[in-house]
Amino acid sequence: MNQHYTHRVFVFAITILILAAEGSLAGEPIDFEPVASAIQLPEGLTLGPCSAVDFDSRGRMYLFHRGKQPILCFDRNGKFIRSWGDNLIGQAHGLRVDRHDTIWVTDIGHHMVFQFSPEGKLLLALGQTDKPGTGDDQFNKPTDIAFGSHDEIYISDGYGNSRVLKFAANGKYLGQWGEPGKEPGQFNLPHSIIIDDKGRVLVGDRENDRVQVFDTDGKLLEVWPGFAPYGMEYDSKGTLFVADGRANKVLQLNPAGKVVNSWGKKGNGLGEYDLPHMLAADTAGNLFIAEIGGRRLQSLQRKK
Asked: What is the pTM of this model?
């Protein structure tokens, strides 16, 4: 019996060490170092305020910025592939890639949400162009997109409205929740939205300096205060990172919503930020941060 117990303890200890080495222990701080962006912009293009970035399953990067050629696609080495959106996008805000490698963006200029193929073909448009409103087929400066396990679409509708809307994959309206205010379940600029591995919907309630956690029908589960969640991203290990545009920092949160590590300060140097807006993680766990004020893309490379 003692031998059996010793074996179980040994196996448990080895498992813990493996998890720690992978950086997947709950709340385990991760170490990064800042690296300049290696993307190769097309000739003659200067980046405007960079609002969002994400990756598809092939490692291609999609960068959303407020300037000409607003949606830029690069290969995994930073080589420019294509761009689109000049005659469609009013003002860039959120960008997410779903599990089918289609690209979703929110346009706060025209109050629209668009879905594109990787080649830039328009697949779906939600909202009414230049007609902000509170209807179930309208937005008022929508901010971000998240995806459920059955391809449901969750949209934080953000600057003009204070709500989350839920749609089926084909764009059929399924419901909504939220109203203006500071009380639990209310919003003051729902700016970012993401879904965790438990299927919970995390909403970055920016001007209330908190993340609010809901079930898929809008029932409030938790509130995580203490920072301004401009952008949120999970890496492949389930670690949550937040771009705090007010503090000009990137934060690492533990599963309880507590900050366990942070990087950056106000500035224009490497590893400094001027309004970090939204961020994404690649398959290696490196972070890429889109800056509004700095008009650039920076990277935090995970130390081995």
From this structure: 0.91
Is 185:222 a contact under the CB 8 Å cutoff?
Answer: no
Which contacts (CB < 8 Å, 24+ apart) does range 171-180 have? 171/124, 171/126, 173/136, 173/137, 175/217, 175/218, 176/136, 176/218, 177/214, 177/217, 177/218, 178/203, 178/218
CB 285 within 8 A of CB 13: no
Would you state the pLDDT for residue 26? 46
Element containing residue 117 per DSSP (H, E) = none
- Cα 219 to Cα 155: distance, rounded to the nearest angstrom: 16
Burial (CB < 10 A; 0-12, 13-18, 19+), residue 23, is middle
Residues 6+ apart with CB under 8 A from 199: 148, 149, 215, 216
Residue-wise pLDDT for 68-124, tens only, equals 999 999 999 999 999 999 999 999 999 999 999 999 999 999 999 999 999 999 999
Q: What was the pLDDT predicted at 37?
A: 84
Tell me if 65 sits within 8 A of 46, measured CB to CB.
no
Report whether 184 contacts 203 (CB < 8 A).
no
Best CA proximity match to 172, nearest among 218, 124, 139, 131: 124
- In angstroms, the CA 239 to CA 256 distance is 11
For 3-40, the pLDDT digits (tens) are 544 445 444 444 444 444 444 454 688 999 999 888 99
Place of tokens 């890496």: 235
Distance in angstroms (rounded) separating the CA atoms of residues 102 and 254: 29
Closest CA relative to residue 302, chosen from 227, 237, 258: 237
